[in-house]
Specification:
- The structure is a homodimer of 380-residue chains.
- In chain A, the strands form four sheets. An eight-stranded mixed sheet of chain A has the order 1-4-8-5-9-10-13-14, with helices on both faces. In chain A, strands 2-3 form a two-stranded antiparallel ribbon.
- The relative contact order of chain A is 0.13.
- Chain A has ten helices and 14 strands.
- The model of chain A has no long low-confidence stretch (mean pLDDT 95).
- With 380 residues, chain A is α/β, with parallel strands linked by helices.
- The first copy, chain A, is 32% helix and 16% strand.
- In chain A, helix 1 packs across helix 2.
Chain lengths: 380, 380
């Protein structure tokens, strides 16, 4: 059997749980009577509790950011390339925290949780959450762990939006903010892709208006289509070309035969869609994409992101990737411009990468180096 | 009632029909026992039959390229911006022919036609057709109309692939070839988008393995998703941003309210999807996207497009649009490079346009001017 390669890794880790019986009032006014927060930690909290780093996950991520759950796991957590001993987010130095956001489907209170008021899963009745709700529940965990301020809050994509929101909502509790492949708000094109994904889910007859769990089913086809759209658009055309080109999986183009041709890229995509739909919750997918669409850092600040960032006290690292067309370098530059106008301390790097939006998850030398350099300069 | 504005237009037109009882053998070896070809013509065939121009339609197009069918039509044919008196494809000078391709769903033999062997609609049993089959059936129409050679064959996108195939298959019957926003073959990313669209259709329970007509239904949801994907990817991010931004259709972002927000771009997209799914056939959509995926001009020529084009005798005009990311200027430059290496006469223009792939359908001054100039130089 293939064993987990735990060298250079945080090794075997186990999720932890924080249960809070205190009701949580969300941005939209709805109240969760209780919340369960599932999280992982890597490294050791120092004496002064000054070395804690919060990792915020994106759309399809969860609390399992690094290491392995079982010795026979073949895949580590989703950001194992960047979290571990000697890695940019160095667990020899930092105490790293990653939490499954509420509304998620990996243990924290979300649509698959039992609604204590009905005894049934929340399903579509789970309230829409905003990025600020994630930040406020991450803050609950922060208090429970007795962390007075984060050495850094770090996130890619939707995670980067949470990191920025931290700076605005808790300016004195975050010393560094690392925003990777993100934006102050989505473009119309991004909202459009999210809406197509949601339409694929909601038009699947197994969706049952979101009450699929009560029907003992799941809108797997719709969720697979949603994931396929995400997968293609989070990669670059160049990366897909290099990986698949026009290689065939079956059939031939011989004239005079009726054998249907299948390209490698087609079966790969279908596999990605099917495997995702087996592990992810459709209501969570809808909720997370809505939170993405709704996020607008400058909305409460007269549409001026520099005003939103005016009262923040963090140092900032902003990173973008050349081939990322869903969160293009131009979106990161808007963040940088707003920070400069607000007279804040900001480092920016546009990293040459072929992998599109997914580049933020991948080992890329320049990205590794500059990320490590920034993290090493943080005082703890 | 709003009336058709027929000024500068070919006016009211009616489709014509060519029925051929002669069996047609397709590239894959399958035989259509008979074919019906629906087409329109605009302008007048001159004495020497030397002024005929063939327009090849793309994925969702048909034979109705210009003018109006009824005085109360509010929309003209799909390329009315470019075909008509005084327009680039000037009907005062040219006799313009546009045919619904076989496999289509607007009258020519296709999946919705009755299979004479079974008395039922072909549905999914309709053979997969290749671009070369469209060219060979367009050639049937050419013979019926007694046209010895086309002054020009013109097409955008999938239509451009047909125009190139004309040059290869009938080098002495085409004097000018106009290829707009096209490619010698699709990229992996393009194939991937087509596969997602097909998956949306085939996973719709109303698809019934393609026999939805026999079940008195249609996979409308799947077809709507397919169209939404096409719509977003055929536009540019810039164009969507200018058209919709983050404008809301309903709801508010007020903190403390539970009213769901809908962006304008979402309802617009859904409307586009629904209206398309009411008029288009799902099996045709699958067949047309497969033809797109399969097309590879150089496949029979050792993957060398310049060898494919070596025996052609046309002059070429190649046009691309800066913001078209599904058929990017780089794809057009590959055509131009192949033509230059084959020592052919080629004009190339990369037109500045914000509208993405859809630019080829839209009135854009520089595109109008250069297209008209090229067409005016054609000897008839």
């Amino acid at each position: 059997m293939q064993q987990a390669d735990t060298s250079g890794s945080v090794g075997i880790v186990s999720p932890k749980t924080l249960y809070s019986a205190k009701p949580v009032t969300l941005a939209n006014g709805r109240v969760l009577p209780e919340v369960t927060l599932v999280y992982e930690t890597y490294g050791t909290l120092n004496e002064h509790h000054s070395n804690a780093v919060l990792i915020c996950h994106a759309l399809s991520g969860n609390h399992h950011a690094a290491g392995y759950h079982h010795p026979d796991d073949t895949k580590p957590g989703w950001w194992d390339n960047y979290i571990g001993p000697g890695k940019p987010i160095d667990t020899n130095r930092f105490f790293v925290v990653c939490m499954n956001n509420i509304g998620g489907c990996d243990g924290s209170t979300g649509p698959t949780s039992i609604n204590p008021e009905t005894g049934k899963p929340y399903g579509p009745d789970f309230p829409m959450v905003r990025v600020r709700d994630w930040v406020s529940t991450q803050h609950l965990l922060m208090e429970a762990l007795e962390i007075p301020s984060w050495a850094a809050v770090i996130g890619g994509s939707l995670g980067g939006m949470q990191a920025m929101r931290w700076c605005v909502d808790f300016p004195d509790k975050i010393r560094n903010c690392v925003v990777i492949a993100s934006a102050t708000k989505l473009t119309a094109q991004n909202i459009a892709f999210n809406e197509i994904a949601r339409s694929a889910i909601t038009s699947d007859p197994d969706f049952h208006d979101g009450r699929y769990l009560e029907h003992g089913t799941s809108p797997r086809n719709g969720l697979a289509i949603a994931r396929m759209i995400g997968h293609v658009t989070y990669l670059s055309g160049t990366a897909m070309g290099m990986k698949f080109g026009r290689d065939l999986r079956s059939g031939t183009f011989e004239v005079g035969t009726d054998k249907q041709v299948e390209f490698q890229v087609e079966s790969y995509l279908r596999y990605q869609g099917e495997s995702f739909s087996g592990r992810f919750d459709a209501n969570t997918y809808i909720l997370m994409t809505k939170a993405l669409d709704y996020f607008d850092l400058a909305r409460d600040f007269n549409d001026d992101a520099s005003k939103a960032l005016a009262a923040t006290n963090s140092h900032f690292l902003i990173v973008s990737f050349t081939s990322d067309w869903r969160f293009s370098p131009d979106r990161s530059k808007e963040i940088v411009d707003a920070l400069v106008r607000a007279n804040k301390s900001v480092s920016y790097a546009e990293v040459e990468a072929d992998n599109g939006h997914d580049a933020f998850l991948i080992s890329i030398e320049r990205y590794q180096t500059l990320f490590a350099a920034y993290m090493n300069r943080i005082t703890i």
